[in-house]
């Protein structure tokens, strides 16, 4: 049998597939247990807006037709929401699509892409797949150290990824320091601000004072790109729809490599309807703030260190290899996320769930730590 690995590009040969959170169905098959809760993938426990669900039901009979490849209606609403031209919008099958597109457009073999230690795993994956060289700057207090990032800019740098807030640490950058950094970067380098958790971080209840809306800077910095997603606060993770906002010139380049019909019919109408349901979004954000407060209080009572987060998740140091605790929690029917692959071997990342789900996780964690 032919080993095709030898024919793969060098970048792909060195990759490992992205590892998502364990699906509920997989745990049911493995352990034969029921009543499982999943707090592993930063999904919104409230579920989608009723308006989004109704829009999908209405559109279901039309799935035999290809979707609008340009996503006109959704782009029109996003244009109005953000005050940008439709030509500045690139739609994606999740926000990971435009993160890949920008690298495919700008990075040639040997070019460099910068990101931080403990940053989202897709940044090195899309970089290496394109033949680029990933340059990881050391973190500071679990978050981005912009001085360390700036010190690593070279003539080969093409893209800089900054997640704000960062996943899996939940750390964030304020507007003054972040804009100063963007201003200092040469215009030939695209700075990508990944705002997947924007709606949670901008809620005053999370405590992220000075947290910026990077979209407001697009007119000043033509080398800026901002990505957003409907997977988190809008609870449409299973539909995979996200987008990037940038200069029209960069959006044009990314749309040249965007696959045809990369956002399906149901995703387009659901995302469009979700934008109309501001009350549902507000409930989701408020529930998250309460959940973060609940989990922080429990960790403090247990004497566990955690990383202050402004996302819809929190990473906690369990004082021992996190994988061992994760596996014991699976037997409790609780799925969380081990993050040793992010250089955090003793941490678990926990999605903020409903109050009763958070309580069940804490109870399971207490039993697990008492027995290990």
UniProtKB/TrEMBL annotation:
Entry EC number(s): 2.6.1.9
Residue numbers carrying N6-(pyridoxal phosphate)lysine: 232
InterPro entries in the record: Aminotrans_II_pyridoxalP_BS, Aminotransferase_I/II_large, HisP_aminotrans, HistidinolP_aminotransfase, PyrdxlP-dep_Trfase, PyrdxlP-dep_Trfase_major, PyrdxlP-dep_Trfase_small
GO terms for biological process, alphabetical: L-histidine biosynthetic process
Keyword Metal-binding recorded: no
PROSITE patterns xref list: AA_TRANSFER_CLASS_2 (PS00599)
Entry's family note: Belongs to the class-II pyridoxal-phosphate-dependent aminotransferase family. Histidinol-phosphate aminotransferase subfamily.
Protein name in the entry: Histidinol-phosphate aminotransferase
Organism ancestry: Bacteria, Pseudomonadati, Pseudomonadota, Gammaproteobacteria, sulfur-oxidizing symbionts
Gene from which this protein is expressed: hisC
